[in-house]
């Protein structure tokens, strides 16, 4: 689950793995959070586009593959794209429906062996391990969500030489303005400051707010603003 329902395109202990949908409640999953996202996915057979997010494609395309943590993976568009390019993917989401769809799509694409799907609630705890890339694509939520804390945990999960890529909405998409009430979105500079990174260990590679044309869930076409933060851990 990309933890924001405003985009029409397309995220303790590790909980339910692929193929174990809904067999039991997990103590590290907030039931209210899970219910919200399950109800969202129940609205249609496919909620996101299935395509990888464009900033991720732009940033990751030139990189040598390694290990990657996909936070709020949704129906698996990013994870499948990454696995298809040789990355070893750990993809987490709180919504079991999203994980089931992502797993099925990965199998259909022939990349299931390169992806480990995990049910994980980032409001409760963060996945363990270090990764060459940590991807946080639109990790925004209308529910209470410890965004800054989660993003700092994401930075701590980056291995030496690895990168953290954060992409967020800079504005509510045109097709979502009637249903979302964000007072404002943090700028890329504010997000970077919230990470509280050691300047002797981290290099900022990208900090910008590009615009792009996109299609909404009901075929609407509009302009989106992405807030992008890309940082590399040197040691």
What string, H for helix and E for strand, traces the elements in order? Answer: HHEHEHEEHEHEEE
Which range best describes the helical content: under 10%, 10-25%, 25-40%, 40-55%, 55-70% or over 70%?
Answer: 10-25%
Number of helices: 6
Tally of discrete structural domains:
1
What characterizes the major β-sheet? 8 strands, mixed
* Assembly context of the chains: single chain
Task: Output the CATH homologous superfamily.
Answer: Vaccinia Virus protein VP39
Q: Can you characterise this structure?
A:
The structure is a single chain. This protein is an alpha/beta fold and 235 residues long. The protein has a single domain (31-233), classed as 3-Layer(aba) Sandwich (Rossmann fold). Helix content is 25%, strand content 26%. The chain is built from 6 helices and 8 strands; from the N terminus they run ααβαβαββαβαβββ. It has helices at 31-41, 54-60, 77-84, 96-109, 147-156, 188-195, and strands spanning 67-71, 88-93, 115-119, 131-137, 158-169, 202-208, 211-215, 221-233. Strands 1, 2, 3, 4, 5, 6, 7 and 8 form an 8-stranded mixed sheet that branches. Strand 2, helix 4 (96-109) and strand 3 form a beta-alpha-beta unit. The longest helix has 14 residues, at 96-109. The two termini are 31 Å apart. The model is unreliable at 1-25 (pLDDT under 50).
């Amino acid at each position: 689950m990309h933890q924001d329902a405003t985009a029409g395109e397309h995220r303790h202990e590790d909980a339910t793995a692929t193929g174990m949908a809904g067999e039991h409640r997990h103590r590290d999953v907030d039931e209210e959070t899970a219910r919200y996202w399950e109800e969202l996915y129940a609205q249609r057979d496919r909620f996101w586009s299935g395509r990888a997010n464009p900033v991720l494609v732009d940033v990751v395309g030139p990189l040598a593959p390694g290990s990657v943590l996909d936070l709020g993976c949704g129906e698996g568009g990013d994870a499948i794209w990454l696995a298809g390019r040789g990355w070893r993917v750990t993809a987490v989401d709180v919504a079991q429906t999203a994980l089931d769809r992502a797993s099925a799509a990965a199998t259909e694409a022939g990349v299931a062996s390169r992806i480990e799907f995990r049910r994980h609630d980032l409001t409760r705890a963060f996945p363990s391990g270090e990764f060459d890339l940590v991807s946080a694509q639109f990790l925004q939520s209308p529910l209470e969500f410890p965004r800054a804390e989660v993003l700092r945990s994401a930075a701590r999960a980056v291995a030496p030489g690895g990168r953290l890529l954060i992409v967020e909405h800079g504005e509510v998409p045109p097709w979502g303005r009637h249903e979302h009430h964000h007072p404002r979105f943090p700028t890329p500079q504010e997000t970077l400051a919230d990470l509280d990174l050691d300047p002797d260990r981290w290099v900022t590679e990208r900090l910008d707010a590009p615009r792009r044309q996109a299609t909404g869930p009901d075929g609407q076409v509009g302009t989106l603003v992405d807030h992008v933060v890309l940082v590399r851990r040197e040691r």
